[in-house]
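Thread: adenosine-5'-triphosphate complex, take 2
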Amino acid sequence: MFFEFGIKDIIDIVLVALMLYYIYRLMKESRSLNVFIGIMVFVLVWLFVSQVLEMRLLGSIMDKLVSVGVIGLIVLFKEEIRKFLYQLGAHQRVKNIMQFFSSKKSKSPEEDKATIMPIVWACMDMARGKIGALIVIERATPLDDIVQTGELIGANVNKLLIENIFFKNSPLHDGAMVISQKRIKAAGCILPVSHAMDIPKELGLRHRAALGIAQDSDAIAIIVSEETGRISVAIKGQFRLRLSAEELEGILAKEMTG
Ligand SMILES: Nc1ncnc2c1ncn2[C@@H]1O[C@H](COP(=O)(O)OP(=O)(O)OP(=O)(O)O)[C@@H](O)[C@H]1O
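Output below.
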């Protein structure tokens, strides 16, 4: 009953272990750890019943359950699967983007500045007036699903327009504004809320929504706090809190122009 055990098998085991570890991490993050443990127990029982005990009837019933169950799991965990695939794609994409930008710098720094400065000035004004705001700047990850939850605008980036949209009684002040390709694409959009446990207690839903989109995509989310007038940025799943105008400008210049 001995079988050959070569380098290919070791790589096979390492890859399966890595895959299981990633699934475990994703499920832990999405607080579905018990589901993961349940699936593992089911798979072990299935293997034991069909491979070791060779019980044909129970084995075939479990075979059927597994094939249907896979579809069920895909539906149940579509968000986690999307996130996993995004993270996988992002690794390669980072390299590609770095290569792309190293040979081809931003076409027009003036054009980038013309987009960045109205955002910075509007945020400073709104911070002074304690007007809450949430601005998401789309980059490589398309945000079409987010845009669909709000109202389409399609206007050039303009300081007064941004302030007007977030003005307290404006019909679009609730939710997030999406800026895409140097234009205000939509406002009043609903973002996914982060369930991270390590967010400072004083930060509420606006900040959680900013972190949520920064975890799910490569977008830059700018938050102006209505309570404190502080400006923060969520990017690559991390917060940069209490920013000055210069710091905000620096981050946007660096991240938007590569
Ligand atoms: N999922 C979401 N998507 C977009 N905007 C959201 C979302 N959740 C909350 N908001 C915005 O955040 C506002 C509520 O902010 P809340 O006071 O809870 O957050 P906060 O982080 O404490 O911010 P602030 O410091 O401005 O009070 C809502 O009125 C809405 O405009």
